[in-house]
Amino acid sequence: MEPPGLKSPYTLATMARPVTKRGTDFGLRLAEARKAAGLTQQQLADKLSVSQQMVDYYERRARNPSAEFVRRAAGLLGVSADLLLGAPQPRLKRGPPSEWEKRISAIQELPRGKQREIQNVVDALIAKAG
């Protein structure tokens, strides 16, 4: 507690990175994964049992996150630790389209009315099979 009349030149506003500055690469990937999971900083903090300020720190300033934090955050966000750390992601080669993909493409080429007719038939067959 400060003595009466003595004001500190430091406040939360002066200690935090201004919002206009770009976060670290790790932080940007963490924030993107958090938002993709539909979580706020506070919700992620609660799930990780840390403060919202700690999540903010990792998203905006941390350059060397702990391995434990990366592992736990990745698990909760449903992404790999490699993705959060920026490791190159392997590109999967796509094979030829399956027979179903070919059929769906053909259906997408039809007028909307015909698409609805096919949808109704497929829905009926699924209901009958289920």
Strand content: under 5%
Question: What's the number of extended β-strand segments?
Answer: 0
Termini Cα gap: 68 Å
Which stretches of 5+ consecutive residues score pLDDT under 50? none
CATH class of the largest domain: Mainly Alpha
Following the backbone from N to C, one meets helices and strands in this order, namely HHHHHHHH
- At the third CATH level, what is the topology name of the largest domain? 434 Repressor (Amino-terminal Domain)
How many structural domains are formed by the residues? 2
Helix/strand structural class: mainly alpha
Mean pLDDT: 84
CATH homologous superfamily of the largest domain - what is it?
Answer: lambda repressor-like DNA-binding domains
- Biggest pleated sheet: none
Overall form: elongated
CATH architectural label of the largest domain: Orthogonal Bundle
Radius of gyration, rounded? 25 Å
Oligomer: single chain
**Count of individual helical segments:** 8
Helix content estimate = 55-70%
Describe the structure.
The protein has 130 residues and is mostly helical. It has two domains: 12-85, 434 Repressor (Amino-terminal Domain); 99-129, no CATH class. The chain is built from eight helices and no strands. Helix 2 crosses helix 4 (52-60) and helix 3 (41-48) packs across helix 4. The longest helix has 18 residues, at 112-129. The chain starts with 11 loop residues before the first helix and ends with a helix.
Keyword list:
434 Repressor (Amino-terminal Domain); 130 residues; mainly alpha; 0% strand
Q: What would a concise description of this structure say?
A:
The chain has 130 residues and is mainly α. It has helices at 12-15, 25-36, 41-48, 52-60, 67-77, 81-85, 99-108, 112-129. The chain has 2 domains: 12-85, 434 Repressor (Amino-terminal Domain) (Orthogonal Bundle); 99-129, no CATH class.
